[in-house]
């Protein structure tokens, strides 16, 4: 078995944790083998192949004979479903969300973009008071139903079931007469040169409108989204005010963001 890279704990408790550790090995080694992973995690080769198929759909890996290779940094990513996204890097997303929610104070007006990380932010807002929050995410809105101190606004529009998000002219128009203190923007991909991007043209357009009406743009993302690009650009990286991510962010990305005057907050998992 190839023991290159960080040791992996065999006491993995679930699918999400196992896949996160496979991602770590891919990034450290560049490739993984099905038989090695099967032995390492004490699961069947069928289970590992399912994991690699999932990671290929996420745009993290490319399957090869007997295993998988890490995606090149410029490889476009394929849009996963909300269910797929919610099962990956869950503990990191919750850590990121906890830090993000602490930035929201009484009197703030915020936008929460649709997504699984912003959903976690909404879950952390249950005890917030005197906050106005707008979202285009059905899952985010549902989480905010428990936050009695938060006035909830919805964009309206057409529902994309793939992402549980609303989009379209009605959604765009709903934002034009507002001004917000902060936008919390989840991303599908972020690259220093290519900027922030997403899979869907309509969502990219709505995200751009969100950026126009927000005083501060705060990107919330786990480190696996860096050095990747999707088809539809939202904004240049230079327009971001803050990034909240984890310590796995590539060193070049961290340096580049900070040199550009963008505040980067790194969180610990757990």
What is the secondary structure topology, with strand pairs?
Layout: H1 15-29, E1 31-33, H2 34-41, H3 45-58, E2 61-64, E3 67-70, H4 82-86, H5 90-102, E4 109-112, H6 116-123, E5 131-135, H7 138-144, E6 150-154, E7 158-160, E8 165-167, H8 169-175, E9 180-186, E10 189-191, E11 195-198, H9 201-212, E12 214-220, E13 232-235, E14 242-246, H10 251-259, E15 263-267
Parallel strand pairs: 4-5, 4-9, 5-6, 9-12, 12-14, 14-15
Antiparallel strand pairs: 1-3, 2-3, 7-8, 10-11, 11-13
Helix content: 25-40%
Shape from CA axes?
Answer: globular
Proportion of beta-strand residues: 15-25%
With helices defined by DSSP (H or I, 4 residues minimum), what is the helix count? 10
User: What is the averaged pLDDT score?
Assistant: 86
Q: What's the CATH architecture name of the largest domain?
A: 3-Layer(aba) Sandwich
Strand order of the largest sheet: 6-5-4-9-12-14-15
Largest sheet: 7 strands, parallel
Please name the CATH topology of the largest domain. Rossmann fold
Total discrete domains: 2
Pfam family, one: HTH_DeoR
Protein name: DeoR family transcriptional regulator
InterPro entries: AgaR-like, Carb_Metab_HTH_regulators, DeoR-like_C, DeoR_HTH, NagB/RpiA_transferase-like, Tscrpt_reg_HTH_DeoR_CS, WH-like_DNA-bd_sf, WH_DNA-bd_sf
Keywords: DNA-binding, Transcription, Transcription regulation
